[in-house]
Amino acid sequence: xxxxxxxxxxxxxxxxxxxxxxxxxxxxxxxxxxxxxxxxxxxxxxxxxxxxxxxxxxxxxxxxxxxxxxxxxxxxxxxxxxxxxxxxxxxxxxxxxxxxxxxxxxxxxxxxxxxxxxxxxxxxxxxxxxxxxxxxxxxxxxxxxxxxxxxxxxxxxxxxxxxxxxxxxxxxxxxxxxxxxxxxxxxxxxxxxxxxxxxxxxxxxxxxxxxxxxxxxxxxxxxxxxxxxxx
Length: 231
Fold this sequence. Notes:
Blueprint: H1 2-17, H2 21-47, H3 50-56, H4 58-72, H5 80-105, H6 110-131, H7 138-149, H8 162-230
Helix pairs in contact: 1-2, 1-5, 2-3, 2-4, 4-5, 6-7, 6-8, 7-8
């Protein structure tokens, strides 16, 4: 399902930038809708109630309808309705992708999050390299993706076309979220190490106090035994 949804996002730019890209874009939209509908049907069968499962996943039904409309309605560079439809479809697809990645993001592994951040930046860098005329190489696209996702904005390379400006919005939403997760994981790792050190110090002090109590009890027993023998 994830590759099908990822394929529907470049479809928006195929219609804008590539001559005759509308046909391929329609195929990608329809394929994503079919895969998502098949996944919804399969999980509904496993749950034993397809209709109830569909009602519980109304967001997926909305996304399927938006993908089908984007596949059926022909693109138009001058129509605000078709542009809004495709932008809405891309936004819903992005939300569904983040929803699907939640189980992976909950692992809390710093290595996994770094790998995910590199993958996201690589895809976004390739996208900028494709649609931004001022990004003459993949390195330029990667740098623009990083500065956009990190909301740094040095200004040496900026989005100049409507397509790249729209793409920058999604890069900020997706990239900033992933980079924030990486930062939070690093902070959590440091906090966890400090908490473990504090727990170790507390346990060591507790063991020392317990050992002192044991020594006092042993001394009291010896004193009692000595008094008993004297009597």
